[in-house]
Design brief:
Subcellular location: Cell membrane
Order of helices and strands: HHHHHEHHHHHHHHHHE
Membrane topology: Multi-pass membrane protein
CATH superfamily of the largest domain: MFS general substrate transporter like domains
Organism: Streptomyces violaceorubidus
Structural class: mainly alpha
Distance between the termini: 44 Å
CATH topology of the largest domain: Growth Hormone, Chain: A
Largest sheet: 2 strands, antiparallel
Keywords: Cell membrane, Membrane, Transmembrane, Transmembrane helix
Number of domains: 2
Strand order of the largest sheet: 1-2
Radius of gyration: 21 Å
CATH class of the largest domain: Mainly Alpha
CATH architecture of the largest domain: Up-down Bundle
InterPro entries: MFS, MFS_trans_sf
Helix content: over 70%
Length: about 425
């Protein structure tokens, strides 16, 4: 039986709310910038649009393990300060050059590369910050707040990006991004984590440290199972709403408005679960809860494929399952990782998701073209059901708890009030 944790309402440090506000401002700036880059690239044709997206995604995937290792060796906060400062300068340069030359191809590609490289170093460091700021007990609620805030920001970013691009073009969008990076830079400089971890001791070899992060993820039974299940979810669940739902809508002759309602139903289910976690706390066995969430999402996919007329409740089920999985697997990975490997584990988690998503977007798109969107949905439902069974069949994952640290974590403590390395 899955029970709610008794100490779910441990007080949240005020510094976390300050950091969260800056992080959400940064997410808004990133989302608007991505929209503007895609819009400007599309004006040059599909080839250039694909090239700009590749310029963002390829460096991010290739350098994630490097970025995680740098975060553990030199301190997550220091990496974030450098990353925000570089992006602030980069956005000011983008605004100045685009004002003079317009959105020329080389400028779009160069900006994409800058964003991708920044993400590779920044995402692992930023992903480890909630644990450094709030400690163990409030962590699930802290991550749920971040996830829910990011969802709401994403809703706002599309209309805002469209309006901003129409009114001020790429130059105005770059200036807004510069403003958001200024906000998060000031916040990260001002906030000193109360539960910080000294930089990891170096083995003397950067490559050995990087491979040690990968090896740790593969050897630890909880982390290994969590990474495997996350890869399955990223490959077969994440592409459904943005990729397969529009294809199904065209097959079923749904209007754009009705398709938007289905999109919203999925988001409603996801945000509902996140809100429950924020208010009442996470469940006591996060691995078990995540596995159940995957099976709930599988049921939603099956219903969507077999009964398109029930698309709204099916989408709600997909959202509920996704929210249950995401709100529990994140805290479990952070709590199960050795404190010396926090950024590297976040890098590995992001890498697994990125590679699976990149690969399966193409596979599922072609499967839908060769068969039909509902067949592709059924295949995803079957794969996600299998992923859920793997999660529930893994004893280390199924029995893991957030409240009780693993033996590794018992040997390594987060020292409250430690001086930040930056």
């Amino acid at each position: 039986m899955i029970r709610r944790r008794d100490r779910a309402k441990s007080p949240m440090p005020r510094t976390y709310y300050l950091w969260l506000s800056g992080a959400l401002a940064s997410i808004l700036g990133d989302a608007v910038l991505y929209f503007a880059l895609g819009w400007a690239a599309a004006a040059h044709g599909g080839t250039v649009a694909g090239l700009v997206l590749t310029a963002i995604n390829l460096p991010r995937v290739l350098l994630l393990i490097v970025g995680g290792t740098v975060g553990d060796r030199f301190g997550a906060r220091r990496v974030m300060i450098v990353g925000d400062a570089v992006m602030l300068i980069g956005m000011l340069v983008l605004a100045a050059v685009s004002h003079q030359t317009g959105p020329v191809i080389w400028l779009l590609v160069a900006t994409g590369i800058l964003v991708g490289v920044k993400d590779a170093f920044y995402l692992p460091a930023s992903g480890s910050m909630p644990l450094r700021l709030v400690g163990k007990e409030p962590l699930p609620r802290a991550l749920a707040m971040r996830m829910g805030g990011a969802q709401l920001v994403t809703f706002v970013a599309g209309p805002l990006g469209g309006a901003l691009v129409a009114a001020a073009g790429l130059t105005g969008t770059a200036l807004l991004s510069a403003a958001t990076f200024t906000v998060i830079l000031i916040v990260v400089i001002a906030v000193r984590p109360a539960f910080d971890i000294p930089p990891a001791p170096s083995s003397g070899s950067f490559l050995r440290d990087a491979m040690d992060g990968v090896g740790t993820g593969m050897k630890d039974p909880v982390l290994r199972a969590a990474l495997l299940v996350t890869g399955g979810v990223a490959g077969f669940l994440l592409p459904v709403i943005p990729l397969l739902l529009p294809l199904l809508a065209r097959q079923e002759h749904w209007s754009a408005e009705w398709t938007g309602v289905i999109f919203g139903a999925q988001s409603l289910g996801l945000l509902g679960v996140i809100l429950l976690v924020i208010v009442r706390g996470a469940l006591s066995r996060p691995g078990l809860a995540a596995g159940v969430g995957v099976l709930v999402a599988a049921g939603g996919l099956g219903l969507l494929a077999l009964a398109p007329g029930a698309a709204v409740p099916a989408a709600v089920l997909v959202g509920v399952g996704s929210g249950l999985f995401a709100s529990h697997i994140g805290p479990l990975v952070l709590m199960s990782a050795p404190h010396s490997h926090l950024a590297r584990m976040q890098a590995l988690l992001t890498l697994v998701q990125s590679v699976a998503l990149l690969a399966m977007n193409n596979v599922l798109g072609n499967l839908s073209r060769l068969t039909s969107p509902d067949t592709a949905l059924l295949a995803c439902g079957a794969a996600i059901a299998l992923t859920g069974c793997v999660a529930l069949g893994s004893r280390p994952l199924r029995t893991a708890t957030i409240a009780t640290p693993t033996p590794e974590l018992e040997q390594e403590s987060i020292v409250a009030g430690a001086t930040d390395p930056a």
